[in-house]
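Q: Got a minute? One more chain.
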Amino acid sequence: MAINFSIQANVVDITVDVPKALDVFLVDTNVWYWMTYSNASSFVPSQLSDYPGYINKALGQNSKIHHSGLSLAELSHLIEKTEREIYERTVGNIKTKEYRHNISTERSRVTSEIKSVWGQVTSLADPLTVSIDALTASAALTRIQSEKVDGYDLFILESMKNHGVVQVITDDGDFSTVPGIHVFTANRNVISAARLQGKLIVR
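A: Always. Here it is, folded:
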């Protein structure tokens, strides 16, 4: 079933946009995954080339690049899942907890991958901090009623708001439902919906 995005953000197509020196971006987890993880090879070419290419251009223009510490949790989960699926190709199905606790060589490989990925992220981008306290949780609960994002993204958006960052580089269409931000993406479904709804902008 096609996703019916109700576009509230301004959307920028990164395949035609040129980053600027004054740009300040938060880079979403999915982009870091494709850009830094050695086994992120089973995705569409736009994910493996357009996003890293755009970030490299942004860095070349001295744009400001940020990451969220919450991305470490998401990256750890994605990397372990991918590594387990790779392992399963040779041994058959194995449960996540068994994979994590029973096969020490695999655990060592997973943690090495996570450390490598996170080292690259922190070398390229500065952190946006967020305290997940009662006030932040309350703001996230308010946000989730009107914006169709997942739990991690609720807090990433709060960190962006707290730091005055309004531009996010992401393939995740959920961000396009958030008013007041600019979504920089190569996601063709989001770009098409934004064009139809008058929310695609050219800078």
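A: The longest helix spans residues 70-91.
Q: Perfect, thanks.
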